[in-house]
Amino acid sequence: MTRPLSIAVAPYDRTLPLMAGLVAIEGVTPTFVTAPLEEIFARAFDEQAFDVTELSFSNYLYLTATTGCPYVGLPVFPSRAFRHSAVYIRTDRGIRGPRDLAGRLVGVREYSMTAALVARGVLEDDFGLRASDVRWRYGPADQYDSQPIIRVRPRGVELEPLAQGGNLSDALASGALDAVVAYKPPKAFLEGRPNIRRLFVDYPAVEADYARRTGIFPIMHLIGIRRELAEREPGLCLRVCRAFDNARRYAIERTKEAQAPFTSLPWAPAEVARAEDILGNDYWLYGVDANRSAIEALCRYSFDQGIAPRLLKPEELFAPETLGWD
Length: 326
Hints:
This protein is of the alpha/beta class. The chain has two domains: about 5-80 and about 220-320, 3-Layer(aba) Sandwich (D-Maltodextrin-Binding Protein, domain 2); about 85-215, Periplasmic binding protein-like II (D-Maltodextrin-Binding Protein, domain 2), CATH 3.40.190.10. Helix content is about 35%, strand content about 15%. It has eleven helices and eleven strands. The strands form two sheets. Strands 8-7-6-9-5-10 form a six-stranded mixed beta sheet. Strands 2-1-3-11-4 form a five-stranded mixed beta sheet. α4 links the parallel β6 (about 105-110) and β7. α4 (about 115-125) packs across α11 (about 290-305). The longest helix is centred in the C-terminal third of the chain and has 22 residues, at about 235-255. It is globular and about 65 Å long.
């Protein structure tokens, strides 16, 4: 006898084995929901629309520290990314390094989004640029983007909307903004508009150096389970964790194959070897203890940047049954 479970998650290589039925969740008949991540997050936070869902880590931290989140975290991290590459600048403003962003107008889709949280965190840790040193402006990424949902008014930070009808890409192209922090390249950058480049031109080398020095592979998203469901069926939490972990293992092992490549990358096995050289052989582990440094960094960033009103601890974020899971 199995129980139904609705699961909203993006179709990554590490989740597709679950979605394709190659990996099972013990005692569960899942129904998978895919949609743009912004939609998944909004429906989860506002409507509790899914039993299990991918969540923005930063917004989960904020809700956990304030009004409470209807979901409790599982230490499964389907999205991770380094974010030195997320900072785009005007080259005609005298911006030669991170400290030159102090006092500048910098755009961001949502101040509280995890990509911006991590980008600001590394700028402060490594270069001494605090979030409060910058004048922040928010708005849609481009003319086709939806209006961002603003959940947070950060304390001690200047945050104002773009002019009515404005968007980040056009504002960067016109010079209304000095820089933008974006989780995907702005259209103006992709179109080769003049006077726009990344702050860190050789970002792969900068990010690899950061990874070696800190041991952190930044977490963007986590999996959450409806709190009342976790409390009613605590054993379900570990069954879901194990299934996601089995899917992750399946994907990584297949990515190493050369005979019949699993991915569309022509040198995928070599890329795996490079990642392992920088991050270690188990570079995408789940579990609290294996990711404690990355989780603690996110908690500290959220508090320091005026998002969470108090400094959270990793043990507050995850279902009790999963704290010792490795």
